[in-house]
Design brief:
heterodimer; A: alpha/beta; Rossmann fold; eight-stranded mixed β-sheet; 14 strands; globular; B: 3 domains; 12 helices; 61% helix; rod-shaped
Chain lengths: 430, 370
Amino acid sequence: MKLAIVVQRYGADIGGGAELHARYIAERLARHADVRVLTTCARDYISWRNEFPAGDEQINGVAVERFPVVHERNLVDFDRQSTHVFRRQHSLQDEFEWLDSEGPVSPRLLTRVRRSRDEFDFLLFFSVRYHQAYHGARASAGRAVLVPTAEREPSMGLAIYPPLFRGVRAIMYNSYEERAMIQSLAGNDDVPGAVVGVGSDIPAHVSPERVREAFGLHHPYLVYVGRIDANKGCAELFDFFTQYATGARALDLVLIGTPVLPVPTHPRIRHLGYVSDQDKFDVIAAAEALVMPSYYESLSMVALEAWALGRPVLANGHCDVLKGQCLRSNGGLYYEDVREFTGAVDALLDNPALAAALGRNGRTYFDTHYTWPVIERTYLDMFEHLSSEPRHHANARDIEPIPGWLARRRRNVPAAADVVAGLPSGPVLA
Amino acid sequence: MDHNSQGQGQGSRRQFHRGRRGADRRGQERRPQAQPRAQEQANRSDVDVEQIMRDIRSRIAQRHGIELSHQQIQDLAARRLESILDPRGVSPALLDQLRSAAGTTSPAPPRPADPPFTFEDTTLFESHRGAMRLARKLLHPILKLFFNPNPLIRALNIQARLNTEAAAREAERDRRQAEWNALHYALLQRVVSEISRVTLETQSLSLKVDSLSAKVDFNERRVRGIEGLQFQAGTSSGRREAPEPVRPTVAVVASPPSVTVETTSTPAPTTPTTQTAPLGPPADGTRRRRRRRRGRRGTGAPGEAMPGGADAASFDATDASDGDAGEPFEGGDEDESASGEAESRGAAVAETPAGRTEPAVKSEFDPIDR
């Protein structure tokens, strides 16, 4: 079987959620199929500046083809267009212009996808919100398998996406909440889909004592791993934690990741910066719990890693996906305000047996759903299912054509934020 | 969402009262009761995160009282507003208009039913057909032979202008009225919200006052009871001429609102405190005040003022004083007083000094009745 993975960025040192997800999947599927990655030359997801050389290369045994991005992202223009399509009634043309503004626009990449009609059995498109996934999936509808990594954010309410969700060959969802959101948005229940997520390379041995000594982590601590960004709920986390830290209990907050938001100067907040994978796993293993303050997640890989290491998770209860995972796994607590944050932290610290039981449940949840054999088998089963579909059945499903010139310019598309606000919400307790 | 789920199965008001009357009013020292439950739950591997979160939320509610979220207060206010704006007295259309007007900052002026009509000197002779227009133009001088249409044209022209101005004035007045309506509605909504919030706070405060007054009442009754007991002991010992070979050991188990007296016929091995206890009638006002203070503090040395079981009484007093303000021994709450009584009885048994024999005679009396 020949597979192509189309993703906006790709690299061994790129740590973004969807990009890392794509790399893990590519490397794992490469054991079962001939996998080729089609991506851009961009390294930075904000500017899409061409930093990698165009052409072929091998990364961890996977063939990668890079294509240049034709223009960098103009943040002012993107912000203006986002405000327009998210907040105001607009036209389909506005949405296409928004997508161009978001990028990464790489016509050569799209041409490569279009010309690979007989080269690949299936093409996996990661992150539906980006230009290459949308237009690439349209260019290869009969073979396009979408990994949307969609979050409950305003862009999901744009009118250009539902036809795509209805027209691709299959969708690999990250979570039940994501599937529920997309199905209620697009009414695509008949499109084959699987909730699969992604696994992680958990080291066989972790050494909590080593990192405690190495980083001087002598107090119990909560750990946050990821981009330190207000969009990830870190500002709220700092607020809640500093309020909690006024109490007598000695608890630190340890941060791992690149800061976009300034880390407050507080004696109980420690920022370790960017650390190696082994250090990251050791720090998580030594923590009382992993805290995930993000409001929008399609799947928190680091939460899965914490569960794999037997540590409980403290998640933002406003995020349906995280809350749903905590409830389904019985492996974590959640909070919606500072009092619940305090109460949940106290419950974990006061009751080590509870924390241990949550960690055990989390590990069981990870072993059942997110180990690599399970993930690989789900993907392979899906490909087998699609391959066995009758040709006329596969051909019957096609993406609806883009409306004509006049229809695209009719200002009758509702504000995307209103569309998303109207979608059913809450965790899915499947 | 979770606030709603918290309130599922019981109306919000009912839950509010329930929270304040139930476990919420228990003392700090009783709160860790939730901990063993969580511990027990944790020992089983089937931890229920939802249940744990419910426990955490109920503990938060106990600690801070039931605090309704802004949204919940808004909902409550909306319900009150509905009841104030009785649909029997107010037109539903007006209500809808008010609500919709409140949601928009500057409501658009209502579109006039017909476009403003302008009347010029050529209006009477206009036609979309060119031939007809030409014919009318040609016949216009003949028409003028019969009558002068100019006054008519002028009058209609003025009337059309007046109509346009009136429509503009009307639109402006409607717009202003809509703004006023929106303002009135918003003000009314805020007033009702504030009233709801204040009412809730008042209810909470009145419950606290009830609780505190019950505690004060109980303490006074208990002090009177202890004093009465001592008075009785002093009188009985005063009646005795000589030390008797067998002295009853009295264990006082104070339990709200009654006090249990356990009398044993077995001679107490040592009752040193009994000897120092003020057995005479409470004639001395200083001693009486001291005893009263001890009784209020509840931390007097065991048996200092009372023979035998005064330690049990002091345990209860400690229990009472350790609780939150207004928490323990609710005189007015039957459930609470019953559980408090049961707990203090259990505590009294636990505090009974080892070696004391089982009570041969057990009598209860209410110190208030004495």
